[in-house]
Amino acid sequence: MQAAWLENNTLRHRADIPVPAPSAGEALVKVRLAGICGTDLELVKGYYPFTGIPGHEFVGEIVAAPERPDRIGERVVGEINIVCGSCRACRAGRPTHCARRTVLGIKGRDGALAEYLCLPLKNLTKVADTVSDEAAVFVEPLAAALRIQEQIRINSTDRVLVLGAGRLGQLVARILALNGCELQTAAKYAKQRNLLEKQQISWIDKKAVPEAFFDIVVEATGTVAGFDAARRAVRPGGTIVLKSTYKDALQLNPSALVVDEIRLVGSRCGPFAPALRLLQNGSVDPQDLVEARYPLKDLLQAFAHAEQPGALKVLLQNG
Amino acid sequence: MQAAWLENNTLRHRADIPVPAPSAGEALVKVRLAGICGTDLELVKGYYPFTGIPGHEFVGEIVAAPERPDRIGERVVGEINIVCGSCRACRAGRPTHCARRTVLGIKGRDGALAEYLCLPLKNLTKVADTVSDEAAVFVEPLAAALRIQEQIRINSTDRVLVLGAGRLGQLVARILALNGCELQTAAKYAKQRNLLEKQQISWIDKKAVPEAFFDIVVEATGTVAGFDAARRAVRPGGTIVLKSTYKDALQLNPSALVVDEIRLVGSRCGPFAPALRLLQNGSVDPQDLVEARYPLKDLLQAFAHAEQPGALKVLLQNG
User: Fold this and answer.
1) At the fourth CATH level, which superfamily is domain B3-126+285-317?
2) pLDDT digits over A271-294, tens only?
3) B117, exposed or middle or buried, with CB in 10 Å at 0-12, 13-18, 19+?
4) Per the CB < 8 Å rule, is A255 touching B262?
5) Residue to test with chain B: of A261, A267, A268, most B Cβ within 10 A
6) B145-266 adopts what CATH topology?
7) What is the ipTM of this complex?
8) Largest CA distance in chain A
């Protein structure tokens, strides 16, 4: 089959990859659409060692499921953490921190930038007919945006700042707007600002962000400058949520963190079920974030597009 | 009067300081005992600009109170944050983050390493007769230890590590032991270990701390090495509480914080009332942490003592 192949920080298109065979409990999924995410770009840059097929945002169709042939034909999205169910983290209800996990297209398991992928049946959730492929492909990053409110309480009276209005920042802002909080988004590019305006979400220029003002700041730029801006924007006793993976080290002044009692929260994967509900009931419609679609064979072109400053969602289409 | 005087990172003993006069709402307090804290040592090193009389841990006696002469003679401890009561932080119930605050012996206000100090009457709490001066002088750092459980929930089934068993670490460990959690303390010096053993608190050598093991790690060494050790010891999804102010910058790997969803919480001043209750009901007895007592005139010697590696509480006695 065709697939993206990452090896030694080099991405290439291959057409000689065997179609994977589902292991016990797994299904074979034919990918319909897959998204390129910031983490994929960082993987290529080498923030984490990975050899294989990247990609973890997808919507597809079950084409083989030896243990559940009745599920063949289901249109599905897939939880990307494949977990043991028996380690301390799994038993404590923190399966995404399973010590033995593999992660689709990120850690120890081939991913979604391919014609086919395998995932455990229990990771696959059926998508309602009323949700389009173009919306369903956003379930994984939408779930990641929902993760924030699993980790911290956001009051509807809170002042909240989302720093960065790219692929992930736009989704985070849309999710947080549903909370009713006093939301601002620092957006750099005109197209990002236009998208926010269409959602009635206010934006400001990064330079106009007030200091020590926000109860909660979500850092979604994935840059050291973004983190420093978050540190300036948050009020004493406030919370900074780190939502992006990136390679550069952060510098912190420990005394300032202590004196101002700042809370810093790393945030990764979130729950699929509420993300699907919000797509189905129309509370969130991410389809206008799709900036381009490329056939799988043009994946290098798609990655080059996704790496452009301010780029929104770039999709890869199978067949 | 006699007092410690800090100017241009130089501490000296002065005998020519006028006795302060209480402003509206304030009382004049004759200091009986004052403690030297890590923050005082860091102030002298210049982590924060301060000119004046340092010191914020004390027990004393009200000797003048123009608006409440009935309180003269009360033996008191004092909340160190003097706040406006009307800014956003004060109104939101976060007075220790008052934007206009002064802080006894730390920020904009002379402190407790003196014969006399002034504080607002509302900051002063009467100490029960059954609580000795040697115990009462620990109320401020005990309150700071109690702050942790105002900020994060610690379950009695949690694995908790206190890194550092000095002045503050000992108090934090004693407070956390009352929670019933699975507590470990990384202690470096024999005298620190002996004190923990007397409290039935287990200690380990820093080198023997298991990795990715603890739900909660309290960093009380005030060193970059301590922070790095905390990062190694905390489990994915766990919390690091920063309890010490210090000057050196921390280096953080943002991707690791995000992927492991680590929470970092800066923690400063806490509530006096529960600290006094715990001293009064005997749940905590800090008196064995007193390592030395010096008369106020020997304060330079007292500071030199407090700076020795592994030193516990050094007190300054007035009169």
Assistant:
1) Medium-chain alcohol dehydrogenases, catalytic domain (3.90.180.10)
2) 999 999 999 999 999 999 999 999
3) buried
4) no
5) A261
6) Rossmann fold (3.40.50)
7) 0.93
8) 59
